[in-house]
Write a structure and sequence with these properties.
about 160 residues, mainly alpha, two-stranded antiparallel sheet, 7 helices, RDD family protein, transmembrane helix, cell membrane, RDD
């Protein structure tokens, strides 16, 4: 039995099996650890950009010079543009992850065509990601509610 934090049991085949994802290796569901490190990399990059270009004369370490809303806006733009067009953020790329279209259809799981999710899915995913709560509530396949709503999943490259 898994807890809500682990996403609960996913049934036969392991995490992501209902989405047609392999249990291990390329294309398998990304682990929470990799996703968290990728998020830290992306947020740190956005903090650096916000403090370098929008500090307004503030002094101190970069994480204190950056305005929180400006950092969030940069983070949203990074996610929208990169996930929507190439399927990964800078942090995802460094950690060997990508965002793919995923979901169930009447014929079965969506096949992985290797393409980016697109602007519409990227916009919905980014909006919900920036709200935070949908991103920290997971389903049995390990997808955050933001990914589930957008019909995407984060997988290993």
């Amino acid at each position: 039995m898994g807890s809500w934090l682990e996403g609960g049991p996913s049934g036969e085949g392991g995490r992501g099996a209902r989405l047609g994802l392999p249990a291990q290796g390329p294309g398998s569901a990304a682990t929470i650890g990799r996703r968290a490190v990728a998020l830290v990399v992306d947020w740190t990059l956005c903090l650096l950009l916000a403090s370098a270009f929008f500090a307004g004369g503030a002094t101190g370490p970069f994480w204190q010079r950056a305005d929180g809303m400006v950092t969030l806006a940069i983070f949203a733009v990074e996610n929208l543009v990169l996930v929507g067009t190439v399927g990964f953020t800078v942090g995802h790329r460094l950690l060997g992850l990508r965002v793919r279209r995923a979901g169930a259809t009447p014929e079965g799981p969506l096949a992985d065509d290797g393409r980016a999710p697109g602007f519409g899915r990227g916009a919905l995913r980014t909006f919900l990601l920036c709200l935070v709560i949908p991103a920290v509530v997971w389903d049995a396949d390990g997808r955050g509610l933001h990914d589930r709503a957008a019909g995407t999943a984060i997988v290993r490259r």
